[in-house]
Write a structure and sequence with these properties.
Strand content: 15-25%
Helix content: 40-55%
Structural class: alpha/beta
Shape: flat
Number of strands: 4
Distance between the termini: 14 Å
Order of helices and strands: HEHEHEHE
Strand order of the largest sheet: 2-1-3-4
């Protein structure tokens, strides 16, 4: 979160939305849910102590560990205003994100989305 704050150039009162694309259902639901809750907790703690007034919101979206679902989840995240994406379970979903963001960022200069794996 601190790295995102430093690189975001957000101003007092702004909210930085971070999409958390992980499996939240199926066999990996327990892992994804635990990681999402941890990330949301860290965002809440950072928000309490952030003197710059920038707030972080973590948006959890179930990618079902599927590249196709991940692409749909990514579109949903961007529609909700997320400019940062976090994903780490599975190379198939990771490749889907990289491909989609390469195209999105080329078409939308100044509105790029950053991917953290």
């Amino acid at each position: 979160l601190a790295a995102t704050a430093a690189g975001s150039f957000a101003h007092n009162g702004e909210t930085i939305k971070i999409a958390w694309l992980y499996p939240l259902s199926g066999l990996m639901a327990a892992v994804g849910t635990n990681q999402l809750k941890t990330f949301q907790f860290l965002a809440e703690e950072f928000n309490k102590k952030n003197v710059a007034g920038v707030k972080f919101e973590v948006i959890g979206i179930d990618n079902k560990l599927s590249p196709q679902e991940t692409t749909a989840a990514l579109r949903s995240a961007m529609d909700q205003g997320a400019r940062y994406v976090v994903q780490g379970n599975g190379s198939g979903p990771a490749l889907a994100i990289m491909d989609a963001l390469e195209k999105h960022n080329a078409r939308n200069p100044g509105k790029e989305v950053v991917y953290f794996n």
